[in-house]
Automatic annotation (TrEMBL):
Name of this chain's protein: Branched-chain amino acid ABC transporter permease
Major subcellular site: membrane
Keyword set includes Membrane: yes
Any one GO molecular function term: branched-chain amino acid transmembrane transporter activity
Location within or outside the cell: Cell membrane
CC terms in the record's Gene Ontology section: plasma membrane
InterPro entries, per the entry: ABC_transp_permease, LivM-like
TM helices/strands, residue ranges: 30-50, 57-81, 87-108, 120-139, 170-187, 208-229, 241-263, 270-291, 297-316
Alphabetically ordered keywords of this record: Cell membrane, Membrane, Transmembrane, Transmembrane helix
Topology in the lipid bilayer: Multi-pass membrane protein
Amino acid sequence: MKRFLPYIAVAFFASVPLWLQDQYFLHTLVVSGIFMLAAMSLNLLLGYTGQLSLGHVAFFGIGAYVSALTSLGFSVSIFGFQITHEPWPPVVGVILGTLVAGICGYLIGKLAFRVRGAYFVIVSISFAEVVRLVALNWVELTNGPLALPGIPPLTIGFEWTGYATLWGKAQNYYVVLVAIIIAYVIIKRLVYSPFGRAMIALRENETLAMSVGISVTKYLVLAAIFAGAMAGTAGGLYAHYIQIIDPMVFMFLNTVTMVIMVITGGKGTLAGPLVGGLIFGLAPVVLRSYVGPELQWILYGLLMILIVFVLPDGIVPAIERWFGRSSGNADDQRPLTLETSKAPQS
């Protein structure tokens, strides 16, 4: 049965726009899905290498701005040279945002992974703050605090077939769903590869991993590249869906949201960021129907604290243990599909 759970989940979520009439709720699902994608990328660092990045929103924002500027076009003067860029299709912008965010992940990884623990956290936060200040003060390029309005929505198609513009919420919902599925497959293949085993070994015992020849910097930087690129994709999708961005996209709250999704869902699991993202993405909307704004965020915080205290490993590991006991095979902790942080057995 566990083997078919991912397919059942995909089929269910694919059917949501067919029966869900509340467009605001569908909008919430789209935004939550984008942040789930960003949380999945953070999970590569936090869950599988054990490195807490509190500046992960920088890659998200870089992807958003690169994609927006690519599709809007710009003219900027750099060292006396005037650089003018004509608008390109939004899909190209998302691809470029992914690539630039991945390159930034490489550069920051090479620098930041020379330190560990609290020092790495400080470096990651500083990087995010520097990027935010650039977006805020480089008015000629980013329009600063006035924001970048009029970002075109995504289009799908080719010149010889014609382009379809994704204006509707349902259309964007399916784009985000496909992006999550692709990211899930990529991360799963990474985790169950020698690359994934090396990441997990570094997380569990870095000294022992180094003693058997695993290059710490190499694998941590590779994880940073993949994490940065996926966060950049999420940022690009966000920019073209919301159609306006400003430096507030770099606010620390967005990073905290990603961390909450990973921790409560179950760090180091494939489905953890999805489960955590679904719960904490929809919780404000559900609570808004029953309580006033003065209690909404209090209950939101209490829910998070309750999950952390009752299920310290996260929701997904707790469900896996429950299934293991109910099937009478508690000793087998390997995932059939959904996932655990343990490396696959040889």
